[in-house]
Specification:
Elements (H helix, E strand, L loop, with lengths): L7 E2 L1 H7 L3 E3 L6 E2 L12 E3 L6 E2 L12 E3 L6 E2 L12 E3 L6 E2 L12 E3 L6 E2 L12 E3 L6 E2 L12 E3 L6 E2 L20 E2 L12 E3 L6 E2 L11 E3 L6 E2 L10 E4 L4 H8 L3 E4 L2
Parallel strand pairs: 1-3, 2-4, 3-5, 4-6, 5-7, 8-10, 9-11, 12-14, 13-15, 15-16, 16-18, 17-19, 18-20, 19-21, 21-22
Length: 271
């Protein structure tokens, strides 16, 4: 009873109670940074409805963890909180969580599904890096930037729904993903270095007219890609597209036309 009245659930408590199934009792409002880290035998954790905050690295490298339900009133999940939970298959973030911090689910190699709440505003760097079995993701409407390597290495990611307010797709954000098509929102302004590098199944992309910057290698390694680029971005980086197998549909005499000529890319002219 004394422990249940404590506001923070500590690493010392977790180590003392370590088992395959663990219960954090009602009354705890936070989980200490690293509380469950490296507890290799735990596969299920039940969290209290009173919980508001999970500290950084809290469940990191819990190699057997595959069942955790986050309480509805949870507000904050710390950086790398579930990193390297290699057997975690599904995660549903509560509606009050507004940020996925860096590396939160990095190397969760068996993660197949992640539900992000409508109120989410920020996707941190490396948030889902190398989640090899993630198959689909819907990114909520308030997110304006996909950060560095957020979904890089998600090699089975076949379906991505991007938000209507999105402005920036970060460096290597979707490197090596598996989608064959992707709808970029009209609000998009910047596509950073290697954003879609080696997305080998991507066959068609239309670059919205609002895009001002496409950095180097943005779509390099996307073999057989058809690109529709009707306007002239202000910045066109080196080797945005593969030389072989890429067809760029653009306006004759445009800067994009000249760029394609410089890099020996096949063009199709549009009216």
């Amino acid at each position: 009873m004394r422990e249940a009245g404590t506001k923070m659930y500590t690493r010392a408590m977790a180590k003392r109670q370590a088992s395959a199934e663990m219960l954090v009792k009602e009354g705890f409002r936070s989980i200490e940074a690293g509380a469950f880290m490296n507890l290799s035998k735990v596969y299920k954790v039940t969290l209290p409805s009173t919980l508001r905050s999970i500290g950084e690295n809290a469940f990191r490298n819990c190699m057997q963890l595959n069942c955790v339900e986050l309480p509805e009133n949870l507000l904050r999940i710390g950086e790398a909180a579930f990193m390297e939970c290699r057997k975690l298959e599904q995660i549903r973030l509560p509606k009050k969580v507004q940020r996925v911090r860096p590396r939160t689910f990095k190397l969760c190699k068996n993660l197949k599904g992640a539900h992000l709440p409508a109120g989410l505003e920020i996707l941190g760097e490396n948030a889902f890096l190398d989640c090899e079995n993630l198959q689909s993701i819907r990114i909520p409407a308030k997110v304006e930037e996909i950060s560095f390597r957020a979904f890089s290495g998600c090699r089975r990611l076949e379906k991505v729904l991007l938000p209507g307010r999105l402005q920036v797709i970060g460096k290597e954000a979707f490197k090596g993903c598996a989608f064959s098509k992707l709808l970029l929102p009209t609000t998009l302004s910047v596509i950073k270095d290697s954003a879609f590098l080696k997305c080998r199944k991507l066959k068609y992309i239309r670059i919205p007219d609002n895009v001002k910057v496409i950095e180097k290698w943005a779509f390099h390694g996307c073999s057989g890609l058809q690109v529709e680029l009707r306007h002239d971005p202000e910045v066109l980086g080196e080797w945005i597209f593969n030389k072989n197998g890429t067809i760029v549909r653009c306006r004759k005499g445009s800067r994009v036309d000249a760029y394609c000529k410089e890099y020996d890319l096949v063009r199709e002219y549009i009216g």
